# Entry
Amino acid sequence: MITWIHLRSVSYLGAWVGMATILAFHAHPDDEALLTGGTLARLAAEGHRVIVAVACDGVMGEATGADGQARLDELRAAAAVLGVGRVVHLGYADSGHGPILFPDPPDRPRFARVPDDEAAERLAELLREEHADLLLSYDAQGGYGHRDHVKVHRIGALAAELTGIRVLEATLPRDPIVRLLTIMRKLRILVRYDPQVIRTAYSSRAEITHRVDVRRFSARKRAALAAHRSQVYGKGRAALAFRLLIRLPLPVFGLLLGREWFIDPAASPTTTLYDDVLRTPATQT
# Structure
């Protein structure tokens, strides 16, 4: 019999003793690598237990089809690269991005149709089971406004209330993202994103509390992105951008994606940006 001993994390002048358990809650496979891949790799390398839970399997049709199996297999492969200890799919189907919410597949509901309290309790059960210390979720805009991403924010906040866990919301600084996507749109690398939507997406710098330097983990983050082969080599609207990213030389990749950003919704606005998600303004005093 294997007995797992969970040590709660203790902070002393920024030095962490014991092992923390961090659960990163994402909408779809590949989101974990794009938004938090470097942070998860860094946490795993530091000896913490890292779990990834996705609300959706990223598939519009039946989960038993080849696409459904492929997306979750890719997620597991990406997670292994990052050092993630466990991957969980909460059991929902992708809701799609656009004005039409299609009927549910026959084998599971679309995430957007699931009552918030039901999904939050499912996530809370996982947090309790793992005795998690920190939940990583999404900002209030759901990044760029995908209905599943917005719902991840709501469900994460509700699950945090149910369990009392600390939550940080993954985001990006709005201004540089607007500039980057404007350039990509002019180069026709991304052509289906609405510039007006992007101008209100993600977060202002004033809201951001954590900027995590993950350049040392650029190789792992790039490899995790590459593991999502159906997205990289498929016909989705972001496929070309994915292919360009994974072909970048590591120094350039690190320059573009070597920092990850979070909001502590419980913190007051501050000019200090913390470089470790396990540190908060309270631990600095």
Notes: The longest strand covers residues 49-56. Confidence is low (pLDDT under 50) at residues 1-17.
